[in-house]
Amino acid sequence: MNNTQLTPEDQEKVDRYLNSPIHQVERKPFRPWLLLGIIVCVMMALSVFSYGIAWWHGVV
Questions:
Q1: In the structure, how many helices (H) and strands (E) does the chain have?
Q2: Which of 32, 31, 33, 51 is nearest to 43 (CA)?
Q3: For the segment 1-48, what is each residue's pLDDT rounded down to a tens digit?
Q4: Rounded to whole angstroms, how far apart are CA atoms 23 and 14?
Q5: DSSP 2-42
């Protein structure tokens, strides 16, 4: 018997566990463009903030 295969009884236990209601959570679809937009906005805000600090100290 191959070590990667489960016995039918064990497979039944795994299936029952995975089909329990706690594992059936509805999620919103992943939106990569929204994530990219948030990252770009945060990077721009940090850049403006650091430029402002440099300007305030006379570096720029």
A1: 2, 0
A2: 51
A3: 456 788 999 999 999 998 888 878 888 999 999 999 999 999 999 999
A4: 12
A5: -TTSPPHHHHHHHHHHHTSGGG----PPP-HHHHHHHHHHH
- Tell me if 27 sits within 8 A of 19, measured CB to CB: no
Band the pLDDT of 60: cuts 50, 70, 90: confident
Q: How far are the Cα atoms of 6, 44, 45, 47, 53 from residue 57, in angstroms, in the given order?
A: 67, 20, 19, 15, 6
Give me 12's structure tokens.
């039944």
Q: What is the pLDDT of residue 22?
A: 83
The pair of structure tokens assigned to 36 is: 């990219």
